[in-house]
């Protein structure tokens, strides 16, 4: 190739001189030089336009409004909590991609003591070019090999090692240890990696290598490592800026502004990925022909245009292209070129930095140019230095415009005009280029005058920062493991649920036979579900749930009309004397009658009394024991209908005709049975839990008769009181039971119902706090209070429509100081506890419907279950989990669940109506 005077075009280079017809008059060599230098000048207004345009792109991307190929990606990094400073331990760090075709392995010891630092041990490995552009597996195997080689020299033994992976390429991260590569940059082009989770690829390679037990716990962008590694003395840096082979920045954004995250509090680190900024409007005026040539000659033409004007991988090449152009047009080296001058990549960043060295730049320039096979004279060297300066100044100024856009974003995000911020900087261009840092600083001051910016050079290239993130990730991973271990006993599998179903079935049979069983299987003397012929007006009482209600129920041809009044049962009355309780009940009835103009009328009354009663008849019920926080004295062992009648007598001038006492499960079954005759089971999951169903009378040994049916109140809340649930019971269940007013009793209820789930959650939260997993290990006073964590919180916290922010609001209203990680974990605890409750309840229902099916020797049973109870009705997932579990465990039963609209008061009135109808026919 003749290099004197002949013009040869570089690959992909367009003739710089424009075509004959509009070719400007030929420039002499010095003018040509000037013209080239001029191309790299960027005016202040152009910088401001770039700043504004980049800011616009950032804000659109944050809102998730960016188009398919966003100019900048604004990628969440899942780094939210800045280091506590308490992080300690030894961490491995693997850096790939920050400084070109090399990777670095570091051993970082975090002391957890402010100001006391242990120098990291590190080793750099050059990545062979064929690996940089080869198969992805080869690259990750190379990384695993380097890790192993590095560790061979370290006293590690076979302790598990935690590794932070600094991977400096644009990635979609979905957690601290899951990150998918979007596209390679900076000369990397390995196949089979884009679109893949790079953490998994590294884990697989380490597995294949099989030499050390390394757990990759975090993947971090190099800008994040640089920001996190910034010395705490200076106060946490909130921006990380890298100008190395490539360039990028990250910063701490208000989490609520990141649409991709379901967050509203706190800050989260966002990697801007400004290397891909390419707003033609803003960049076109500053892009030179040399930029286009460089881009066309790169591995990723059209991509990372902004980076290719700033990154250290490209600055040398830009200078070379200008020098080659000037030489070919006789403006340099007397028009002489050389193969080296004409070959891409022959001029590197360090060459440019040397040539710009304020002291020995001129000498270095001669050395570098001779190295390229050209012999410069003094004016050549001077022009070459000016070309270097032009190219690098532009890079620094463009970088400053981008940083100014980030500062403007911080001002918007913090709603602050004056901003004080520390920017951690890292990368060879910063470290090697003599003037880059100052030009950047000055330009930022011009473009963001209201921002007070301190630049903190990263001490070790971000290795410590990556270790910090790894420590945070390791802490979170350890917390997650502790959380999973704590919640594992709440995850009941099919076998365990099948065992509960079978045990309940056996207990049912034993209970029906009057043998020892934790299921009392109490006959209710309700022999049929309503047949629609019931008529009349009835009073009904509904005691035992969240609310005590008095109702008047009108049963007519046209249907059932109900008027009811809710009254409270103060704890002092529920746990006072029986006389006090029943006098209070009668007071409410009298108040209701007065309000409804029923005073003096003696309507038949049905009493829904939701506690275990041994019934001797429809209107006789001996209270076996209180449950659900009731504990009125002198009632257990008594006929509660008598207790009510005595209270009525004590309140003279009141006429009430107590006809029936029913359990709320029976009332609910009857109430739903009135609408759907296939309803033969009643289920309550509220303050307490229980079920009843229509059993074949022949199976009820305590009641005479072999034909027909009898509704049996199972009192399944007591299931397991014989210890048969011991294997499933957790330490938290034991704590809740011990703290209850009836320890050892109602064990099944205490794993399922609303009165207890909140308490189970509270004790799990206390345990996780004591392990340091929650609330930074600080025990919250509010959580020490019994019953402060209401079961309704579970229903609210688990609602899908509730964003994490609302979960935090509920917990903060409780007085908890928490992070989003805490809120996420509290939600998981609630889910585990309520899921177990629903699954156990489902196993119980499956046991009952299977019994009914076998009772009737049916292949398939179609049956409905009437259900009531706040937990079942209000919890977002409880009912569907119960139905799913029943389908799994009783596939030969088609079960529909009918939510009772009118509560069991209506059912009690219907039972009373049936009793009255039977009594009338008996009199006839
Ligand atoms: C409403 C019924 C009542 C039952 C209650 C159970 O009318 O008989 O006791 O549901 O649900 P809780 O109010 O305990 O949530
Ligand atoms: C990558 C960034 C990285 C930057 C600096 C860019 O090419 O896309 O992820 O932070 O280089 O290394
Ligand atoms: C009682 C049952 C009642 C259930 C639901 C349990 O505590 O023992 O009689 O049906 O709660 O209210």
From TrEMBL:
EC category name: transferase
Hexokinase N-terminal domain span: 34-231, 483-674
Record's function text: Catalyzes the phosphorylation of hexose, such as D-glucose and D-fructose, to hexose 6-phosphate (D-glucose 6-phosphate and D-fructose 6-phosphate, respectively). Mediates the initial step of glycolysis by catalyzing phosphorylation of D-glucose to D-glucose 6-phosphate.
Superkingdom of the organism of origin: Eukaryota
Keywords: Allosteric enzyme, ATP-binding, Glycolysis, Kinase, Nucleotide-binding, Repeat, Transferase
Pathway linked to the protein: Carbohydrate metabolism; hexose metabolism; Carbohydrate degradation; glycolysis; D-glyceraldehyde 3-phosphate and glycerone phosphate from D-glucose: step 1/4
GO cellular component, one term: mitochondrion
Catalysis performed (reactions): a D-hexose + ATP = a D-hexose 6-phosphate + ADP + H(+); D-glucose + ATP = D-glucose 6-phosphate + ADP + H(+); D-fructose + ATP = D-fructose 6-phosphate + ADP + H(+)
Molecular functions (GO terms): ATP binding; D-glucose binding; fructokinase activity; glucokinase activity; mannokinase activity
EC number: 2.7.1.1
Gene3D superfamilies per record: 3.30.420.40, 3.40.367.20
Protein name according to UniProt: Hexokinase-3
Pfam name, any one: Hexokinase_1
Record gene name: Hk3
Family (UniProt): Belongs to the hexokinase family.
GO BP terms, alphabetized: glucose metabolic process; glycolytic process; intracellular glucose homeostasis
Hexokinase C-terminal domain sequence ranges: 239-472, 680-914
């Amino acid at each position: 190739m003749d290099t004197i005077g002949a013009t040869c075009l570089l690959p992909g280079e367009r003739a710089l001189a424009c075509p004959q017809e509009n070719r400007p008059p030929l420039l002499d060599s010095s003018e040509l030089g000037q013209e080239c230098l001029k191309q790299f000048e960027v005016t202040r207004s152009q910088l401001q336009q770039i700043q504004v345009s980049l800011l616009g792109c950032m804000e659109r991307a944050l809102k998730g409004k960016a188009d398919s190929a966003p100019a900048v990606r604004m990628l969440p990094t899942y780094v939210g909590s800045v280091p506590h400073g308490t992080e300690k331990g030894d961490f491995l760090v693997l850096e790939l991609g920050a400084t070109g075709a090399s990777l670095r392995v570091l051993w970082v010891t975090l002391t957890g003591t402010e100001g006391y630092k242990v120098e990291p041990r590190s080793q750099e490995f050059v990545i062979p070019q064929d690996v940089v552009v080869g198969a992805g597996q080869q690259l990750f195997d190379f990384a695993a090999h380097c890790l192993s080689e590095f560790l061979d020299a370290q006293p590690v033994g076979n302790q598990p090692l935690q590794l932070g992976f600094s991977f400096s390429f644009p990635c979609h991260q979905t957690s601290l240890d899951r990150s998918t590569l979007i596209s390679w940059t900076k000369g990397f082009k390995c196949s089979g990696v884009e679109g893949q989770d790079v953490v998994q690829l590294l884990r697989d390679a380490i597995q294949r290598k099989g030499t050390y037990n390394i757990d990759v716990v975090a993947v971090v962008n190099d800008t994040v490592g640089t920001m996190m590694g910034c010395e705490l003395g200076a106060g946490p840096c909130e921006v990380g800026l890298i100008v190395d082979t490539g360039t990028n920045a990250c910063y701490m954004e208000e989490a609520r502004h990141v649409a991709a995250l379901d967050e509203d509090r706190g800050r989260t680190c966002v990697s801007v990925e400004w290397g891909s900024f390419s707003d033609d409007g803003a960049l076109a005026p500053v892009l030179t022909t040399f930029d286009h040539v460089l881009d066309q000659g790169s591995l990723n033409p059209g991509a990372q245009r902004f980076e290719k004007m700033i990154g250290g991988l490209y600055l040398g090449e830009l200078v070379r292209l200008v020098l080659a152009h000037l030489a070919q047009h006789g403006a340099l080296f007397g028009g002489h070129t050389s193969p080296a001058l004409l070959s891409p990549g022959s001029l590197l960043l360090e060459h440019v930095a040397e040539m710009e060295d304020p002291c020995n730049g001129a000498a270095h320039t001669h050395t570098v140019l001779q190295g390229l096979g050209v012999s410069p004279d003094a004016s050549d060297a001077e022009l070459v230095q000016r070309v270097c300066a032009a190219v690098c100044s532009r890079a620094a100024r463009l970088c400053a415009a981008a940083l100014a856009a980030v500062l403007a974003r911080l001002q918007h995000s913090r709603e602050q005009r004056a901003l004080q911020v520390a920017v951690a900087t890292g990368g060879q261009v910063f470290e090697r280029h003599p003037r880059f840092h100052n030009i950047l600083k000055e330009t930022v001051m011009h473009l963001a005058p209201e921002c007070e910016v301190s630049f903190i050079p990263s001490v070790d290239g971000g290795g410590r920062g990556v270790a910090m993130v790894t420590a945070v990730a390791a802490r979170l991973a350890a917390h997650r493991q502790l959380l999973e271990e704590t919640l594992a006993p709440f995850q009941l599998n099919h076998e365990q649920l099948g065992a509960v179903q079978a045990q309940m079935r056996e207990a049912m049979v034993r209970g029906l036979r009057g043998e020892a069983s934790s299921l009392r299987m109490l006959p209710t003397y309700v022999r049929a579900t309503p047949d629609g012929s019931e008529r009349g007006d009835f009073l009904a009482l509904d005691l035992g749930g969240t609310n005590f209600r008095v109702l008047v129920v009108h049963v007519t041809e046209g249907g059932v009309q109900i008027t009811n009044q809710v009254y409270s049962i103060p704890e002092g009355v529920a746990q006072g004397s029986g006389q006090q309780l029943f006098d209070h009940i009668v007071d409410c009835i009298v108040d209701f009658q007065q309000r409804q103009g029923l005073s003096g009328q003696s309507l038949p009354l049905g009493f829904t009394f939701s506690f275990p009663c041994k019934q001797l008849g429809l209107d006789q019920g001996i209270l076996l024991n209180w449950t659900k926080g009731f504990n009125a004295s002198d009632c257990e062992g008594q006929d509660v209908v008598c207790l009510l009648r005595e209270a009525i007598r004590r309140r003279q001038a009141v006429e009430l005709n107590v006809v029936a006492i029913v359990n709320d499960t029976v009332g609910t079954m009857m109430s739903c049975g009135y609408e759907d005759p296939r309803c033969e089971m009643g289920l309550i999951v509220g303050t307490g839990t229980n079920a009843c169903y229509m059993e074949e009378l022949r199976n009820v040994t305590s009641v005479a008769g072999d034909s027909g049916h009898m509704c049996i109140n199972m009192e399944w809340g007591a299931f397991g009181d014989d210890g048969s649930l011991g294997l499933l019971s957790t330490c938290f269940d034991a704590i809740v039971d011990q703290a209850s007013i009836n320890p050892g009793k109602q064990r099944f209820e205490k794993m399922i119902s609303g009165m207890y789930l909140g308490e189970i959650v509270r004790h799990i939260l206390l345990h996780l706090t004591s392990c340091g997993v929650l609330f930074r290990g600080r025990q919250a006073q509010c959580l020490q209070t019994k019953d402060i964590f209401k079961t309704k919180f579970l229903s609210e916290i688990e609602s899908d429509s509730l964003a994490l922010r609302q979960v935090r609001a509920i917990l903060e209203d409780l007085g908890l100081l928490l992070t989003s990680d805490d809120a996420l974990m509290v939600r998981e605890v609630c889910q585990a506890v309520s899921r177990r409750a629903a699954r156990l309840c489902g196993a119980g229902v499956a046991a009952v419907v299977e019994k009914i099916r076998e009772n009737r020797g049916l292949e398939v049973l179609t049956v409905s279950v009437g259900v009531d109870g706040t937990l079942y009705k209000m919890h977002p997932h409880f009912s569907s989990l119960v139905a799913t579990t029943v389908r799994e465990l009783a596939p030969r039963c088609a079960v529909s669940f009918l939510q009772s609209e009118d509560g069991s008061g209506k059912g009690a009135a219907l039972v009373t109506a049936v009793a009255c109808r039977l009594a009338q026919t008996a009199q006839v």
